[in-house]
Amino acid sequence: MNGLGKVIRGLRENKGLRLKDVAEQSGFSESYISQVERGVVLPSVTALEKLAGALNVNVSHVFELAEQANNSRPTIIRRSEREPIQMGPDSQFKSFLLAPDFQRQMEPVLSRAKPGAISHTTSHEGEEFMILLSGRMRFCFGDEVIELGAGDAAYFDCRVPHRWENIGEDEIEALWVITPPSW
Known about the structure:
The chain is of the alpha+beta class and 183 residues long. It is 28% helix and 29% strand. The chain has helices at 3-14, 19-26, 30-37, 45-54, 59-71; strands at 83-85, 93-97, 107-113, 127-134, 136-141, 144-149, 153-157, 162-166, 172-179. β5 and β6 (144-149) form a beta hairpin.
């Protein structure tokens, strides 16, 4: 069932209306309304306005509810479907967006860096959380320099200039969660 169909059905059922009732009010057949509710047919804006009118709601309310329903579903990204973030052909970093859905509040990024790799110093609006999954990292936050090992985590205000570097002999892997999304 698509988001709009699910919303139409939910509104109808919450109001105690039958398909027949909505059909009479909207001028559509029960079959058509059933197809809309099951996601078989996507209604035009005009048809959606008539259905919303039959349910005694504003069409904008239907869209708001559909958007909420879509955002409540999980976003699943398989390992093979991860989108790389382009860092340049000679970059010592490799990063992947783990959930490229910019309607969400957070942005998870998996980063790997070769030994000796140093990120550029950055600052921006929002907050970040990072957990170092493997390796050793030097994390520079403002004037502070903090060494981190596998399993260590940092949560910080992104407005403060920050950077990091791989200080180990092996590649590091870190999971970053950024809000608001910026990639």
